[in-house]
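Quick start: what a row looks like.
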Amino acid sequence: MKLLIIGAGGYGKTVADVAKQLGCFDKIAFLDDGKSGNGVLGRCEEYAMFCDEDTAVYPAFGNNTLRMEWLEMLMEEGITVPTLVHPSAYVSPTATVCAGSVVLPMA
């Protein structure tokens, strides 16, 4: 499976790091409106060009409201939105971690 991260800033890099440590993605790439190079394939609104049944997409915007808007839009379109839980994080067995959640190291 491939992971496409929308947003190549600090949070996007953090998400990519967690995803790499999980080892469940063959390729990790970014979309960003203000950056190029270093795995950035294009602009944010071009996400559909890079999606197929083997692609998960995560909007990694620091702005929580914007991130929720993108999560809802992606899920409504039937795009896979991953749940990423770092192996060093503790998640209670009674907790529910929903799609679009990222649990960072040592949380």
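That is the whole record. The chain has a mean pLDDT of 96. The longest strand covers residues 2-6.
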